[in-house]
Amino acid sequence: MHIVITGASRGIGAALAARYRAGGHDVTGTARAGGGDLVALDVTQADDFGRLAAHLGGRAVDLLICNAG
Ligand SMILES: NC(=O)c1ccc[n+]([C@@H]2O[C@H](COP(=O)([O-])OP(=O)(O)OC[C@H]3O[C@@H](n4cnc5c(N)ncnc54)[C@H](OP(=O)(O)O)[C@@H]3O)[C@@H](O)[C@H]2O)c1
């Protein structure tokens, strides 16, 4: 599966990302600052979703985990 997890820089989101990757899934993680393999996304800023959409490039998302908070 291709899984998108918001708020994947630490805590529950990072743990979920690590677990899913260990299980062979492809994870796109986000965080406000981005960096590394994280896409920069502040979920309170509507304009930031364009960056995520551009990163995904129309690729299907099988599971979206709205964890950022
Ligand atoms: N821990 C618990 O016991 C518990 C219990 C019930 C519910 N929850 C919920 O579970 C979720 C994760 O909890 P957690 O304890 O793992 O939190 P956490 O350690 O504070 O991590 C929050 C994550 O969300 C990101 N984030 C915060 N504000 C954001 C924003 N405006 N836009 C995008 N990303 C944002 C942070 O990344 P950056 O700071 O790098 O952007 C970080 O990756 C939260 O929604 C929380 O309310 C947690």
How many helices in DSSP terms?
2
- The domain tally reads 1
Question: Shape, please?
Answer: globular
Structural class: alpha/beta
Bound molecules: NADP nicotinamide-adenine-dinucleotide phosphate
Per DSSP, what share of the residues sits in E-state strands of 2 or more residues? 15-25%
Assign a percent range to the helix content: 25-40%
Main beta-sheet annotation = 4 strands, parallel
- As laid out across the biggest beta sheet, the strand order is 3-2-1-4
**What's the total number of strands?**
4
Radius of gyration, taken over Cα atoms and rounded to an integer in Å = 11 Å
Low-confidence stretches: none
Q: Quote the average pLDDT.
A: 97
SSE run: EHEEHE
How far from one another are the termini?
A: 24 Å
